[in-house]
Specification:
Number of helices: 14
CATH class: Mainly Alpha
CATH architecture: Alpha/alpha barrel
Order of helices and strands: HHHHHHHHHHHHHH
Largest sheet: none
Distance between the termini: 11 Å
Radius of gyration: 19 Å
Number of strands: 0
Structural class: mainly alpha
């Protein structure tokens, strides 16, 4: 991104003063640095800043907080008093993925092996890489499995990883669970026949990582296209039936993403999908883009809204203040949209 605008130049300089996880993505997505430069900066995520802090909490068994989706132990009373926790293996791996921790490392290979050997879902004690029952959990499992486990050796069976994992069976299952309206819903197992924004974005991100890692299958690519259409028909945040906003929380700016849907997350997913496939932006996202643009401050920065409750290993930024994460996402979305 080259500019003669002093506000934008100041924002870019402010972003470059941030954590390595911010800097390498700014270099790649906003300033068009040569690959060797941003890759060198990306390598620092494992050893410095937020990435290193998260890695420091990993147990010798490869897990975080002793659990797959939830810490072990973690009582229902704690959930009621402090909210859902984000310190176990799946949320931390997802967090490391969005920080951009380089998957082509010995750490990634070893972690994929350890998680496959030691992590069991709280639901029915199922092996981690095989997934469990909820689509939003399985979508994120596919995403982190493809991101961290697709670069080493030959695919092996879920739960018996030797540095790589074959996510194709779980992807096929997610494709088979797609709702008639094109999305997904974690309540499908209890009888729901209508999709959820939350479940849909988690599955779509997983399918995109699968496509990036393997090229996808005709079925997974068709399912992802139908899921995109589910969101775009609703302009990324409106009810299809009435046109009213489905949930005001969809318009919040939060980071890191958990299982919660936001239009910011959806726009960044669509941007990433376009980068992979070469498809142009879909104009049905225009209203969401303008809402994003409208929250830009006079200083050219975007704020962080309050994230979901729950214990975390680290708090990267302070809610209510200008956010490097949100500003990075917003600027690269606008760059994609305006191109």
């Amino acid at each position: 991104m080259t500019t003669k605008d002093p506000v934008i130049d100041g924002v870019l300089e402010w972003l470059r003063e941030g954590d390595p996880a911010i800097r390498w993505q700014v270099m790649r997505d906003l300033t068009d640095a040569p690959p060797g430069q941003w890759q060198a900066e990306r390598a620092r995520v494992e050893h410095e800043g937020w990435g290193a802090q998260l890695l420091s909490h990993q147990g010798d068994d490869g897990l975080w907080a002793g659990g797959a989706c939830f810490p072990n132990p973690f009582a229902r009373e704690l959930w009621n008093s402090e909210g859902q926790p984000w310190t176990a293996t799946l949320p931390v791996l997802h967090e490391l993925m969005v920080l951009g921790l380089d998957p082509h490392t010995e750490w990634a290979r070893h972690t994929v092996e350890l998680v496959g050997a030691n992590a069991r879902w709280e639901y029915d004690d199922l092996p981690f890489w095989g997934g469990e029952v909820e689509e939003c959990i399985n979508g994120r499992t596919v995403a982190v499995g493809c991101y961290f486990g697709s670069s080493f050796g030959s695919p092996s069976s879920a739960g018996q990883s030797s540095g790589s994992v074959d996510m194709a069976p779980l992807v096929a299952r997610l494709v088979s669970e797609q709702q008639p309206d094109g999305g997904w819903n974690c309540e499908r197992a209890t009888g729901s026949t209508r999709s959820s924004f939350h479940s849909t974005i988690n599955v779509l991100e997983g399918l995109l990582e699968f496509e990036r890692a393997t090229g996808g299958t005709p079925e997974s690519r068709a399912a992802r296209a139908a899921g995109d259409d589910y969101l775009l028909q609703r302009r990324l945040f409106r009810r299809l039936s009435t046109g009213a906003p489905a949930d005001e929380r969809f318009l919040r700016f939060t980071f890191p993403p958990r299982w919660h849907y936001t239009t910011l997350r959806a726009l960044d997913y669509l941007r990433a999908a376009s980068a992979l496939t070469g498809a142009p932006p879909d104009r049905r996202a225009a209203e969401a883009v303008e809402l994003l643009r409208s929250r830009r401050g006079p200083d050219g920065r975007w704020p962080l809204d309050r994230p979901p409750r729950g214990r975390v290993w680290i708090q990267m930024e302070e809610p209510g203040m200008p956010s490097r994460w949100i500003t990075l996402h917003a600027l690269r979305i606008l760059r994609w949209w305006e191109a």
